[in-house]
Every structure is written in structure tokens, then in C-alpha cells.
Structures
1.
Amino acid sequence: MNRVVVKTQDGDVKINKHIYGHFAEHLGRCIYGGIWVGHDSDIPNTRGIRNDVIAAFKHIKIPNLRWPGGCFADEYHWKDGIGPANERPKMVNTHWGGVVEDNSFGTHEFLDLCELIGCEPYICGNVGSGTVQEFSQWVEYCNFDGTSPMTDLRKKNGRTDPWNVRYWGVGNENWGCGGNMTAEYYADNYRRYATYARNYADTKLYKIACGYELDWNRVLMEKAVRFMDGLSVHYYTISGDWNYKGSAVEFTEKEWMSTIIKASAIDEWLRKHIAIMDEFDPSGRVGLIIDEWGMWHEVEPGTNPGFLYQQNTIRDALVAGIQLNAFNNLAQRVHMANIAQTVNVLQSIILTEGAKMILTPTYHVFDMYKVHHDAVKLPLYVESEKFGETPLISASASINDENKIHISLTNADPAKPRQVTVEMRGLSGASYSSVKGQIITSDKMQDHNTFSQPDKIAIKEFLGAAVSHNNLTMELPPHSVVTLELS
Ligand code: AHR
């Protein structure tokens, strides 16, 4: 039997909606084809951006979008991506398939996309091969409203008002593809770059330092904590290993379980990072930002290995549910997260083929979990049946300003349904008598949506939960993600 106890009186932390952020890199068919089709395309678009993708992003209320990378960010020179498109220089995308990057999607196009979606931009600057001046001028170009060379240039390129971009990443994976730096060298550079990234008018920047493993983060926190607002880490889940990551759609129960074990380990991993942050920032001011996370499989057979195109099954949905539950539960320190990557790359929420678009099971998890955006986290503990040391059940809960409680649960058992009770503690007179539910599941754990069967997996009504005296009982089907609403 599995038991979840929700402490309804102890909610004091908001689940920052930015935990539900996304990431789009100049990689494979993410930007080009997936988001940007250009002004002359037959695919319906708004100023070159696909209308179907805009609508899908808006529906799940994407709160922020990280761009332009990834490894690409530390080779990207933003001035190449402004001005008349036909005059922009072409470059080689050395990280991702060696293809030609024609810079037709640049700062204006990205910020237009964010305005169309209604989300906040999160720009990752170039530290690996860029300069402090280049980074500083990018901020000025985006945010300054006075008289300056960068403002004049922006106006000349057709944009009068500044965009007021708040979120800035100071490099990406600078311990690896972003320059192979040491922690000490990066920490000193972080301080230089952060110094010249200025606040203009009311836009106070939220500066995100590039973190890594525990030792690196300790050095960075020690040397630079007072200059940062966020510390980023990346967590990819791989069912195999880096030599053979495993197929996205053809896997055994054993591979399913190895995936669940690795996905669930994120909770303890995050707690270790948080412990270091607590030492140097006891007030909890600096956010832990998981600005790349998700499943990384082998590419789909026959596709360009440099494009990282993969399918997305119920297993990916489970990983999303488990990890979003972990982020919700650690919301006092986790202020933002960005799944990698929006369209056609890694654990995507959307796949496209020409004019066709499908939504993946992971998309539906983001749709179902949007009830937690900016709601107050309700602490809980879970007593779960286990596979080895790994719990089969995960959960998180929140209460919104209409006093509705939402509880999200996952059952990672690949084959069996599991009985779960949820006890609502400390309601002091308040009473919840109605429960509604939604579920994402399918007959087989390998099931996924395809262009010929786009709606095989979608959100369905869940009728398997009952409420009595503020306690819930339910049977969670195998490999399922559920969200309940109590009112
Ligand atoms: O998301 C793909 C790549 O994974 C990113 O470019 C890089 O930051 C990470 O290693």
C-alpha cells in the first residue's frame, strides 16, 4: 500500500511558474523548421514563426524560453543575427551537424516569438568565445531606452521600444563545450561579465551563473555568490550510457526501470546541490536553475546523428512527471527549469514533419501540471512501494488562490496498478468533498504519438479516485501520470 500525507497548513512557498520553462537551441530542426519557417513559407506563420507551434506553446502557458543554446550559445555572436536577413553572415554550426547557420533567426525573431507566446525570454550569452563588451552590448541593445549606439542600432533595425529582457545566462557548460574552463577561471570571468551586464530603467537583471558538479559549484558559490541571482545545473536521464543511450521507443521492462531509477535520483542530487547553496546563501536568495533536463535517447533511425531527433513515449511522460514533482517539492530553492528541448530535439513537447505537427506525451504532462504555476506548494511525504531503493510513486501538491488543491502523482510500475491513499492533514474545519482527475497513460509503455496516429496519447478524464473526510483513495494504473483537483 502507498500513502501520501499532505501537510495542508504548512504551505509557505510559491511554486515558481518558471519551473515550467523551456529551451530552444539552434540545433537540428528545433529552430529551423520546428519554430521558424520564414516569411515566404506555405506553412501558416506569423512573421515567419509557425502558427500551430505558437498556439501549442500558448496553451500550456510557457512561462519562459531559453535561447540560443546550449553549446551553440558560446559560439554565437549576436550581431550576426540582426539587420536585413539577406545581409547576415552565414556560419557553420560546428556542434550540431556542421550545417550552415544563416542567422535568419536572431534576436528580433526570438523576442518576437516570446511576445507572440506571452513568455519571458531567457538569453544565454557567449562567454566561451565572446567578449565582455559583446555581452554587455547585447543587454544594452535589448533593454536601454535612452540615447546610445546600441539603442540607435536597434531602432534602425525596426524596434523602437526596448524588450526589457530580465533573464541572462552567463555562458553555458563552460566546464565543457563552453570553453573547457576551470571553476576558478570561470568564477572570475563570471564576475567580469556580470559586472558589465547593466540594469536599465526598471529592468533588474536576473543573472544566471553556469554551474556543474558539486566541487565546481562550491568554488563558484564561494567566489561569486553575491554577483548572481541563479546557479544553473543540467540533468539528463539516459536509460543506457553515453556509448549507447538506448532507443526512444524500443525498450524492455529492465530498461524502463533503469530509466526510472536514474530519473528519480534527481531528488537526492538536487538536495546535495541545495546543501552547498545553503552554506553560502543561507537566506535562499539565489535560485537553483535546472536549465537543461529531460531524456536523451539515441536518435531515430535514419536521422542525422547531429540533430538529436527522438520520439517520446509514456516513459518520457513518467520522467517528466517524476522530475516536475521533484522541482515542485524543492520550490524553495528551485526557481526555474527548462526542459530540453521544445521542438524536434531530445525530450520535445512538439514534433513536426513539414506542415504537420504532433504533441508528445511530455507536452500533455506540461498541460496537466500547469495548475501548479505560481500556486502555493503543500509539503508532503510519500511512503511508497519500491523497486530496489527507488519509489514507485511520486507526488507533489499545491493550493491555488481559489483554495483548490491539486495533487500530481506518478505510478512508475511498468505493469501493475498501485493502490494509493492521500491523507490531507491540518485542514482545521475546511472540507473537500469533490475530486476531479486527469490522466496520461496508454496500454503499452512504449506507446507514443505519430503523424499517422497523433492522438494515441492525450489527457483523459480519471475517475479512479474517491474522497471521503478529506482522505483520498485511488488505484493508479500502470505507467500513469495523474493530477487530481480537490474542491
Ligand atoms: O541540449 C543539447 C546539449 O546538451 C546542449 O547544447 C548542451 O548544453 C548540453 O550538453
2.
Amino acid sequence: MTTATLSLSELTAAATEAAKVTAAASDAERAGWLNAVADALDANAAELVEIADSETSLGAARLTGEVARTTGQLRLFARVITEGSYLEAVIDHADPSATPPKPDLRRILRPIGPVAVFSASNFPFAFSVAGGDTASALAVGCPVIVKAHSGHLRLSERTAEIVAEALRSAGAPEGIFALVSGREQGTALVQDPAIKAVGFTGSIPGGRALFDLATSRPEPIPFYGELGSLNPVVITGAALAERSGQLAAGLAASFTMGAGQFCTKPGLVFIPAGTSFAADLAEATKDKPAAGMLTDRIAEAYPDGLRSVASLPDVAVVSGTVDQDAGANGAAPVVFSTSAANVLQRPDELLEECFGPTTLLIEYSGPEELSQVLAKVPGSLTATVHAQPDEDVSALVDQLTGLAGRVLFDGWPTGVAVNWAQQHGGPYPATTSLFTSVGATAVRRFQRPVAYQDAPEAVLHPALREGNPLGIPRRVDGELVLR
Ligand code: NAP
């Protein structure tokens, strides 16, 4: 199934054939495939972590946790499809006496077809070869061709071997899964007529280039890209008065975690002017060590990003140094500060993601200026509020709801739970779609609604048959029927 000897067109042709089998397979069969992949990854975790550590510098502890998260994710999707509400089965019985008469209509979500998945650099397991995009596409019956990330090629190949063998042993069809590498192959994959959707995690320029390719094809296809996110945090004066030191410690841990290479890193922190928070944060950050970065490309970009922020007027370095060689010595944390007025003057330069252990404090004079400057912040995956329990933050929460997919209270955005309610997505450039790439409803990206009108029972998917043979939740004549 990872047939390196096959050409791209042979791989996509095989995926098209496999799609017929995967679409017809039962939920129980596909759940079995996902569980088999999870078991195989767990069984080979030690070897995989060793390869991943040698390629990414992320450390064995973090990587071991990430394997567990990845296999937990595969098993969650197995439960999601077994539960059945992911099909969104809806039945409206015919009503010949209505004016005009109503036909029998039955709607369900069907697999979209073969999916291309672009692995992320920063999550070599959870957002890569066997990560959330792959798991959610396979779950709903879509074959997957993964474009390996150049930052962890050996790991990608070994993971793909394990995934392919597990799928084969569990009875999945040939062509359900393959791996390709190199930019040329990735670009061709997005343009291949057999591919019906793309999942992507990476940079704004890379994601945008591929998004434009996907949408300008003769047959445009959905491109589910997770591109860039600043993850604003707002701290009120009352919260700072109560627990400035504790907030500084929490922020320092969050923005330096994984050398700041998280899509949910808090990159902008809004605080009232005239507090001692910057000093508290400098104190909390001073002992955080430099850490190796994922790839040479990312290590080169980090000091460039720092220097461009530092070169702007009215920006102060609160902690750390801008002149560093992140490739040779690892990336060291840097905290900047500026005023909301300065951000309002030059939003494009100051509101740009800098991948690495850095964050920008933005001092606001009051709620009105805070609201004005938040209005300039681009779409984000997360937005966070730190306030006191007796403060009315409802207007602030309304504004943050408009700019992020997940709004947090008294916490830090790094760390994304994989469960039924998760929303990991947000307005552009956080994502190029309305969907989440993490959690149960991530499957929705790879499903296409179809309604059957006056269809004979024999041709209907079992989920739409009168007796509900699958025993799944459905909406029948407007009422939710659980079983
Ligand atoms: P990237 O450069 O966008 O690469 C992601 C994938 O897209 C890789 O497979 C890459 O191929 C491919 N690619 C990139 N540019 C392309 C183009 N013009 N045409 C065709 N394919 C292209 O992202 P990255 O390497 O992961 O990290 C670089 C930056 O991305 C970071 O500095 C950070 O700013 C951002 N990032 C953001 C997130 C997030 O979740 N928000 C996550 C990770 C990274 P190759 O691997 O073959 O080069």
C-alpha cells in the first residue's frame, strides 16, 4: 500500500478503485482498520519515537506522548463511526396530502473520495502520516495519499510501512493508503483529478499556494488548510492585580513549550498599560533554555522574524536577545512589548506569526482601545481571557468569538484535547474552511451530503432504511430519534 515503485497516477488510480470498496465497507469494518493501525503504532512506538527524535529534536517524552495521542485519536474516530450520528441521517416521509405534495426524501453524508494529506512539521505523529487528517478520512471511507513532510522523511516512511501493513492485515483494500514525498509530487497530487479534497497543516505561503492550486483546478476541490495563528490572550487589570506572577509563569510555560512551535502558541498578549507584568514575565522566562528547532528552514526563519519585530519603532525587548543563531544553538525565548496605539499604526508588521519561543505584550489604555486593536487581529485558532469571576467580560467574549474557533477562560491555548466537542480551526488564516481538524467532527470535511428522493428501500444505505437496522441516531419527520 506504500508502493514507492508506483507512479503518482498509478497510486491515485488505485485510490479511486479502493474508494469503491471503502465506501461500501461497514462502519464496523472501517473501525477495525483504524483500531488495527492504532495497535500497530503502539506496538512500534519505541522505534518510531527514536527516529522522530533524531529528525525533529522534540525529545522522547513529548514524542512518546504524541504517539499515545495519535493512537487515541484513531480509536476515537473508530468510536465516532460506530456511534453513527456522523452520517447525519435524516428522513422526511412522503406527504401526498400536502400542498404541494411532498416526496419521500432521505439525506446522508457519503465519503468524498480519495484525499491528499500534507503532514505537518511540528507534530510528526498527531498531524502527520497517521495523524488526524488521515484518521478522519479513512474513518468515513476515503482512501488517503500522504505527502510526507521533508522535516521527518525517515519517520514518515517507517510510519507508512506500519500503517500499510496494519491495514492490509486487517483486510482493508489495496490502494487505500500511500505515501509520496517531494514538492513536485505534492503539487501534482493536489492537481490530480482523482483527488477530491486536501488536508494541510503548515505555513501561510505554502498553504496558500496549494489552496490556490486546489481551487483553480478545472474541477475545484475543498482545501482544508490550517495555516497560521496568533492566538491572542487578553488579561484584565483585575486579574493582574490578583495574580500577576502566576499568570506570568503560565504564559512563560505556554509560549516556550516545544520551542514555541505550536499552532496554538499565545503570540499576542493584551495587558493594561502601567503594570509590572512585563517584569514578572521576564523573570518567569529568564531560565527557560534554548531548544533545537524542527528544521533548518524554521531555525533560519526564527531570528529573521525576531529582527523584523525588533526593528519596528516603539517596540521594546523585555526579555532575551534578538541576535541569535537558532540553527547552531537552539531557539532562545524572546519577549517583546509595545503599545496598542503602535499596533493600530502598523498592524501588518506587528500582527504577523513568528514561529518559535516568542510573544508580544501589547499594552492597552482601556476597553475601547482594546476593542479597536482586537478588531485588527487576523483569524486565529484560539483566543483566551484571563479575568476575575466578578468581571463582566461578555462584550469581550463576543468579540473574541468573532475571531477564533476556541475561546478559553483562565487557561493557556497550547494543548488541544481530542474529543467530541473540540474545535481546532478559525477564520482565515487560521484555517481555509469552517471545519475543525481535531476532534470527532473533523470527519465532516471528507463527507458529501446526498439526498435520495422516492428511492426504493433496496438501494438505500442501511442508515436510511425504514427499520433503522444500524440502530443509529436519526432525524425522522423533524424529530430526533436516538435509536
Ligand atoms: P510549509 O513550509 O508550509 O510546508 C508544509 C508542506 O507544504 C510541506 O509538505 C511542504 O513541502 C509543502 N509546501 C510548502 N510550500 C509549498 C509550495 N509553495 N508549493 C508546494 N508545496 C509546498 O510549513 P512548515 O515547513 O511546516 O513550517 C514552516 C512555517 O509554517 C513555520 O515557520 C510556521 O510559520 C508555519 N507553521 C504553522 C503551523 C500551524 O499550525 N499554524 C504548523 C506548522 C508550521 P516540503 O516539506 O517538501 O518542503
3.
Amino acid sequence: MGEGFGRGKVILLGEHAVVYGRPALACGIERGVRATAAPAEASRLDVPVWDLSLAPSTDAEEPLARAFDALLDVYGERPRLAVEADVALPAGAGLGCSAALGVAVLAAMDDALGVEREAEERAEVALAWERVFHGNPSGVDTAMASAGGVAVFRRGEPLRRVAPKRPLILAVANSGEASSTKHMVDSVRRQHERNEARIEETFDGIAALVRNGELAVAAGDVIALGQLMDLNHGLLSSLLLSTTKLEALCETARAAGAKGAKLTGAGGGGCMIALCEDRESAGGVCAALEEIADEAFIAEVGT
Ligand code: PMV
């Protein structure tokens, strides 16, 4: 039996601009997806938490079955494997759930078949899965699902790892508003088509925040990183990616002592992240967020 794991991710700085070739600062979190794969008569993918049991041969109208099919095509000879995935991430919430699932399924199948891949190659191959869900993925989600840690991702370049001087302690809150990455990426594309110069300026601004953010993480400067996150949130709001609920979550986190807060991932709903000084203050921030969020939890990165 093969086993695989794909991490969830949070984007500290740089979502959306990363689709247009700018860098993003992201980290893998310990919550993710575990998958197992075992030889079977015919391939199928089971996701018990979603009550899904799919066969690529008969459920082709189901995107998840098509994504699974795309991964089976990766091998010279299509394998026959029964894959089961245990998903511990909310879907459509900006935490890279679909990429974590794709990476976990691929890793479990590789393990069952004795195929060895480096993290970077696995992330690249898992893009075939991601493309089924949205046409133009930057690759940051599969890269972080596969590699973990903190890193600067830029399309077409090798992942550049960043060693945090001290662990990053984040309060993560789910707004409970489901969002579609594809729709949000499409919305930014339409704005870019209508007013290219202004949107490119916004992306350049975000890229500058990412460069400073990398330095702040390496220096362990929580105050600077928090300010950069606030600024990034403002620029994302200017791209119409925030919601009333996400604004309320950011405000609540800041009022409860977070050093900075922003939406993370595609926006239009999904999750918010707040940077905290330490675990104790993160506990207070989470308690305040739980009053209005669907759920809130602490993610510690870079230990
Ligand atoms: O919402 P998520 O977790 O799928 O994150 C999407 C990140 C984007 O930058 C908006 C899209 C991408 O492909 O990088």
C-alpha cells in the first residue's frame, strides 16, 4: 500500500500577482491531506469526508474524476489503483485544498508503484490535476503542498527557501463564505484586460511588499511583516477580492492584538490570516475570531 501527504498552504504575501509572474511569499502548514493507494481491479478515488467515490471511466463529468484521470495519465502505463483521501482542510477556502489533495494522491500512487520524485517534480506533475479546476494556476499551491516550509515562489523559477529567524505564528480564520479560485482569478483577469496599466502597478506594489516580506521573515521582524500584510490586504481589496466578512475578521484580529491581517488565497470569501507575536497572543486572537468565524486555528510555521 502506498501513502502520501500534501500540505495546505497560506500565502503570506503575493496572491494573484503571482499569476502574472510576480513573486509570492508562502508557507506550507501541517494541516493537509493524507492519501493511500492500493492495487485494484479498476482505478477509483474515494474521499469519505465529501461522501465521494469516483471512477474516472464512468464519472467523467465530475471535475475530481477528471483530475484523477489526468494523474493516472502521468504514468507510461496507466496504473489500476484504489486511492482513498483523508481531507483535513476546508475546500474553497484559500488554503490550497485541491493542490494538497492532488499532491497527496500523486505521492500515494508514486509510493504504491515505487516511483521516486523530488518535491519540485511532484509539484510540477500535480499541476495537471490543478489545471482541471482552474485554467491558469501559478503553481504556488502545488509547490507549497509538496515542499512545505517558507519560500518565495515565482512562476517558472525554482522555489527559493526562506529560513525564518523565529517561527511564524498565524491565526487562521475561515469566513465560511465559499469562494471559487477560478472565478476570482477570472475577475482579476477581466480587470487586467480593462485597465492593464493600473493593475500592473498594483502587481508591482505587491511584488515590492513580497521582497520586503522576505527580509522581514529572515530577520524575525514580526512588526514589519504584519505591516506588509496589512498593506497587501489593502491592495487585494482594491482588486475587489475582499468581502464584508473578511474585513470584519481582519479588524477583529487586529483589535485582539494581531500585528497584521489579510485575506489569503483567492479571496471573495475563504480564509484570513493574522500574524501574532507568540502562541499566547494567537490564542487570544483565535478566541476573538471564533466569535464571528466558521472556525479559527493556530498555524505555526518554520519551527
Ligand atoms: O485560493 P487558493 O488556495 O487556490 O489560492 C489561489 C492563489 C492565487 O494566486 C489566487 C491563484 C494562483 O494560481 O496562484
